[in-house]
Structure formats: C-alpha cells, structure tokens
Amino acid sequence: MFRPLPHRVPAAISSAASAPAFTGNQAALAAAPQFPHTWVPLATTYELDPDRPTPVSFLGQRYVAYRNNDGEWVVMDDACPHRLAPLSEGRVDRETDRIECAYHGWSFDSSGQCARIPQATDAVAAASLQSTRACVASYPTRVEKSVLFAWLWPEDLLTVVADPAAQPETMLAGVDLDTSTYTRDLPYGWDTLLENIVDPSHIPFAHHGLQGKRTDAIAINMSAPESLGAAGLLFEFGDRTMGMRRSSIGEFRAPFVVAYNGSFEGSPKMFNLTVVCLPTAPGWSRTIIFGGIKPEARVAHAKAGDAEVARQRSRLSVPALQKLGPKPKPSLFAKIFSLLPTWAIHLGSNRFLDSDLAFLHFQEQTLRQRGAPKPASAYFMPAPSDRVIVALRRWLEQYAHVLGPLPPPIQTRAALFDRWTQHTAHCRHCQTAVAGIARWRKRLNVGLVLCLAAASHWAARLLGVACLGGLGLLGLVEQQFRVSDYKHYQT
Ligand code: FES
Ligand SMILES: [Fe+2]
C-alpha cells in the first residue's frame, strides 16, 4: 500500500525569496547531523492499533501514526499547531475521518489540513483555516511486509526513486510476506543497538539458556567485513550455537536493517534473521524483529509448504527418494511454537531483549563518559569476531552522525526493564491479552465471593481454592507484560 504525497505538504512553505523553508519536524531534520535519506521504518501495522493515534519517534522528533477510513496509514508531526499538544493524545473521529486534538478539539484531515477550530467564529475560522500555520505536516507512507515506512525528509521523495537501497522492498528483501513482528523500544542508542545486532560473539553469553549456552562459545572465524560504501557491510563468519556449528553471512543494509542467512553443519536447518534498528532519540532506539508466521496465516503457510515439498519430491526418482528418506516431521518445539498466540511469543521476545538490555545501557554511558574521540578507540578488540564492530564504527563515522548528548543513566531496575512502556503499551496483541486478564480476574473474583458464600459445601471450598490459584496465576502472567528484571548471575 502506498500513500503518495498529500495534495499539499502543509509544513513546507516558501519564504519571500522563494527558497524552501520548513517548520516543525522537517526543519529539525533539515538541520540534523548527517544521516542517509531513505524511507524510514517507524513501526509495524501488525502491532499498531489502527484506531488509536500512536506516537512514534525518529532522530528525536515525535510523529503520530493512525489508519484513516480509506485504510491508508497516516503519519504526521505529533504537535497540534494551536499550542503544540501531542495529537497522539487525541482521537480519530471516524465520522469525519479526522484526527482531533485532545486539548481544544482542533481537527485535521489526512493531509494535515486543519478542518475545524471549535472556538473561532465563522469569520475567524474561515480566515484561519486558510493559513499554513493551522496545518500539521503529513508525510507520504508505505507499508511493506507489515512495516510502516514514512518519507520524513524535507526534500521530495522522488530524489531517491533510483536508489534501490533507499526503498522498503530492498531493506526487507528475503522477509516472508506473512512473517509476524515484535517491536521494542530500548534504553540505549541506535549505534549501540547496531553494534549488538551485528555481533554474533555475544550470543552464547548474553542469551545463555535462551539461544544456546555459554559452552557454545568458540573462537569465531570471521573474515574481514566487505564495505559496501554508504549501502553498508557484508561479513561472513562461522560459530557454534545450540551445540551446532553454523556458517552465516551477515548484511548491514544501511542505515536500518541487519539480515542474516546461515546453515548448520550436518543439518537441513537454515538460519534467517532480519532486524530493523531505528534511531528514535538520544540514548534510545527501536528494534523490529521478524519472527514466526502470523497465526492467521499459519495453516495456509503449512499447506503451501507441504505442497511445495510434495511438488519437489514428486520430481525425484525412486532411488533418490529412498536416499532422502521419509519427509521430516516438525520438531516438538516447532509444533508448540506454531500453537502459541502472538502475545506469548512477545513475552518470550521481551525476555530475550531483556537479557542484554542492562549492560548495553551502562556500556553506552561509560563509553560516552570516557569521551574517546572515536568510540572504537575506547574498546580493546583483539578477536577476529570484533572486526565487524570496527567496520561498523567506521561506517557510522562516515555516514551517520547521530551521537547527541545522552540522557542521564536510568536509576532503577524497574525503569530500566519497563516492558510496559517499551513494548506492551504500543502492541495491540499484548493489550488484548492484558484486557483478557482483567476480564478473567473479574470472573474469578465473582466466583470467589460466591464460593465464600457457600463455604459450608466442600465443593465450594475446593472451587474457591481454584479461584485463588487462578488469580495468582493471572497476576504472575500480567506482571510479565509490565516489568521483569534479568539477572545473569541467576542463569
Ligand atoms: S493545543 Fe490542540 S487544540 Fe489547542
Ligand atoms: Fe506484544
């Protein structure tokens, strides 16, 4: 789906000398330090609630995203032109198909044009609605493989039509159309996130027990990364994970995507991973990880996969089929995984991201405090697996200057591991699960009261205990949507 340039881009106005001038977020991005101008992946339509204006950020600027009545995704500056209240605190009025500011009720159509100033007389409103100052900047959007992209830069997006690296389809090449996503806002910057995602050597330790084990660690064989210039990096390596040797190719598709393709020694299993990394604000970044197939597409996918395997097998000769053996059955883990609802997969993903969250937050603070002129010079990186970090830091120095002052370190573990703000609040699947928990809590409380009223019967007492157990379980699950510390010394 492609939402082209609105009939007007209200924030772009012309000065007396007719040189283009910009307001709001466009002005900030026009003055921003060097950064590649491409489509920007802000969020995923798989997780966004289409009826709710959701705040999203890029390079320290706030935007609001929602879906209009035509099914198109709209991205605007998240500031009402009246007195700058965030539009993401407002609502989408489905009768008028406008976003309405929660403060004084000004409302705007999808192009950002102000359509109503409730407090103004007809004459004042008629004059004011014509002013560009009453408009909000609204940006072209595209949805590619569930990812919502926006063109946020001051110049026309036609400037990059010939640049494949700037296009969403190039960034997400290899991702299945039906893949589900998991999005998390992380309390460390984009450069720290990229450094972590391109680094295979941390997996056995940082994700011990979640993906492989500490005993998987071996000397990683990594060749010198190949520079693709502004387009990124290519790196090859051999490592071990979950007890299996693995050969992989990693790609940094600058500036936002890291993609891996690999195979395991002596196993038909393949390894594919695509991760989006977005600079949201100083000391903060957003990651979008592509996971399993969306629940609603799993059956069709399994059937298509079976049909493809059957088609390939039908072409083989009998001896070749005998050599191949019977069709492999999915593992128990794969079977269980295929039954899980999205919120349960997201809880697992939360745990995975928690496991390197704290040390990355403080590592970044220390790196900045030491004030090394070049971040990589503050590190001691003798192993071949560190080559990719050196190459990435070189790329950042050359093409993306986004290292602004960091906010102060986060003081409490609860704030550091605040899953609610970092994921749950903006994920419709997890929000639905939390609402379901609230409904069940109400039912169990009613059940408990009824059981107490009939406590003279042994069956009621038994049922009461079951209600109490259910309430305890709901509390434990709900806590996982809110906050959960991660302690490596306990794993
Ligand atoms: S700040 Fe939005 S209507 Fe007043
Ligand atoms: Fe979620």
From TrEMBL:
Q: Which domain of life is it from?
A: Eukaryota
- The signal peptide, as residue positions, is none
Q: Name one GO cellular component term.
A: chloroplast
Compartment(s): Membrane; Plastid, Chloroplast
One GO MF term = chlorophyllide a oxygenase activity
Q: Does the keyword Iron apply?
A: yes
Every Rieske domain range: 39-150
Query: Gene3D superfamilies from the xrefs?
Result: Rieske [2Fe-2S] iron-sulphur domain
Q: Which UniProt keywords apply?
A: 2Fe-2S, Chloroplast, Iron, Iron-sulfur, Membrane, Metal-binding, Oxidoreductase, Plastid, Transit peptide, Transmembrane, Transmembrane helix
PANTHER family registered for this protein in UniProt: CHOLESTEROL 7-DESATURASE NVD (PTHR21266:SF32), IRON-SULFUR DOMAIN CONTAINING PROTEIN (PTHR21266)
Write the protein's name.
Answer: Rieske domain-containing protein
Organism equals: Phaeocystis antarctica
> From which lineage does this chain's organism come?
Eukaryota, Haptista, Haptophyta, Prymnesiophyceae, Phaeocystales
